[in-house]
Design brief:
mainly beta, four-stranded antiparallel beta sheet, 0% helix, 50% strand, globular
């Protein structure tokens, strides 16, 4: 399952500020995994389900659009 950038109103692009979890780390559903910035505000992206971070698709400092996959989550 992919972790994606959620819709944030009329925001067209976000910058991935910081990963809070790394590859191989376990996460619970709703747990914060990354911080993104849009319009000078910081938003937290949460894991949609429990699992393990399998791959980070977007590096810190890179841009992503709402709906874009930023990481892959592997089931437990």
């Amino acid at each position: 399952m992919d972790i994606t950038v959620p819709p944030l109103g009329d925001v067209e692009e976000v910058t991935l500020v910081r990963w809070l979890k790394g590859v191989g780390e376990e996460v619970e559903a709703g747990e914060a995994v990354a911080e993104v910035e849009a319009d000078k505000a910081i938003f937290v992206i949460e894991a949609p389900t429990a699992g393990r971070i399998g791959e980070l698709l977007v590096p810190e400092g890179a841009k992503a659009k709402p709906g874009a996959a930023i990481a892959r989550l592997e089931p437990d």
